[in-house]
Amino acid sequence: ASTVTELQTARRQPVGQVSLAGPATMMSLYMPEIVKRFRAELPDVELVAIQALTGEIYNQLVSGKVDVAILMQIPNKAKFAAQELTTEPMVAIAGRSHPIAQKKSITRAALGTQRMILPSLQHGLRALINEYFAEENISPLAHLQADSIPLIRAVVADGELITILPQSTAH
Hints:
The chain is of the alpha/beta class. Helix content is 39%, strand content 19%. The chain has helices spanning 3-12, 24-29, 31-41, 54-63, 108-111, 124-134, 149-158, 167-170; strands at 16-22, 45-51, 68-69, 90-93, 115-118, 141-145, 163-166. The strands form three sheets. It has a three-stranded parallel sheet with strand order 2-1-3, sandwiched between helices. The chain has a two-stranded antiparallel ribbon with strand order 4-7. Strands 5-6 form a two-stranded parallel ribbon. Strand 5 (115-118), helix 6 and strand 6 form a beta-alpha-beta unit. It is elongated, with a radius of gyration of 20 Å.
């Protein structure tokens, strides 16, 4: 086949590999559907899905180790083309025995005085939480930092600390 024919075929039926990195939340909520659609539309392209923390994902994108990144927050928007995929409400979560558990809402200032377990600074959620508080010049009281959402939920269920998570992650 001629080079022109090969190029036309490649355009109609792409082959090769695409690597995509995303945080655990995105992987569990959105990747099953992304994989399903990807396989249906590009059956001859291998998809490599990598789960990591936002800071690690960004570094992999910058270094060229991954082709596409799904991030909670983009550290340097000028470096890459970015498209917002979704926005999601964040919610404060407390164990049933915590005093704020009975409240329907809490102000940002009051929330900022609570003892919290928060994602570490490497985690994309932490950057969003810090931005939320910074809008009113508040520094959240992170008494414990963890990158594991299951661990955060377990500690919150114990009742002493509260957290802030995206609504879908909270469930």
